[in-house]
From TrEMBL:
Membrane topology per record: Single-pass type II membrane protein
Sequence ranges assigned to domain Fucosyltransferase N-terminal in this UniProt record: 24-142
Pathway: Protein modification; protein glycosylation
Lineage, highest ranks first: Eukaryota, Metazoa, Ecdysozoa, Arthropoda, Hexapoda
Enzyme class, first EC level, given as a word: transferase
Single GO cellular component term: Golgi cisterna membrane
UniProt subcellular location: Golgi apparatus, Golgi stack membrane
Coiled-coil regions, chain positions: none
Keywords: Glycoprotein, Glycosyltransferase, Golgi apparatus, Membrane, Signal-anchor, Transferase, Transmembrane, Transmembrane helix
E.C. code: 2.4.1.-
Record-stated family: Belongs to the glycosyltransferase 10 family.
Pfam family, one: Glyco_transf_10
Domain of life of the native organism: Eukaryota
Protein name: Fucosyltransferase
Amino acid sequence: MSPLGKWLLAPKGSPPPRLNAANKTYLILIWKHGQFLERRHLRRFTSTKFSPWDQCSVRNCMLSYDEKDLHQADAVVFHLHFTRSPSELPARSRTDQRWIFLTDESPFHTFLHDHQRLSSYDGLFNWSMSYRMDSDVPVPYGRTIRGNFSTEHYWNAVVRASKTKLVAIMGSNCGGRNGRWSYVRALKSSLRGNLDVLGRCLDGNRTVCPGHFDRDCAALGAYKFYLSLENSNCREYLTEKVFWNAYRKFAVPIIMGASRQDCRRLLPPRSYLHTDDFADAKALAGYLGYLDRDDVRYLGYHEWRDRYQVINEHGYFGSVSKHYCRICEALHYNPTKPKVYARLERFWSKERDCAPASA
């Protein structure tokens, strides 16, 4: 893990790593897709444009979308999801320039444009930028920090007053390599009216939560549990489904995606359920009914809130995005020693880092 990654998971109040150089200003170039990415990372799906350095531990960085700045830039960010081929990358003229590959998707969905091989990009990039904490520039959808937050009376009151329904799932992508919607269908057969599907999948309710990512869904605040089922089961792949739709709404996430081991390492203890802990959907439904009848045991899944804090940093629903701040911090804190990803699949691999697709 990079110095930046270690600091992001350190207890509240931990000092940042030592600066590489004092009084140096860094230029960060977003290659080709800066204007598109601005909607999420600078505007947070609102009409307001926020500073990328707002509440950032360092601020002496400049952001550019202008390809004319290529030779002056200290770092160049390439969004792999939208890149059609290595031919879209420019000729390189500086060996001290950090070329960064960015992906917010799981390894199954690295490329929007199919029929590409990750190996075609071998030897091109110096830094990785993804939701994984072992990236050179970690940009997780959310993160957990330890501390004494003393919020018991607040969360206890919120949970007791607001939780009138059992479990929900919201979705617009009705696919998934892990069979998640088949799991929802099986769970629905047991829970019936106690499971609400919001969105267009499985004939769900399309009106209660309009808007995808740009508008918050206040209705989720009524549910005790949220089905945080990702589109693929990959290493550390925990998205806004966990951090916003569940934790932010004072709900307990039911996770399918990252492994139980990853969840134990990255999430507050006893704050979630994992589908792998149950023999099948029927067994999970039985346990949800048990917790629904026992307020004390259910509230036990919220006790972590006194000792941990979950921070949303994905840019959806008006939440803050820290992507560009993290690049600036990495330039300040990470080692300056030259580095190159000679074989990208040693770091980012759907075969090694993800479970195979369900039948």
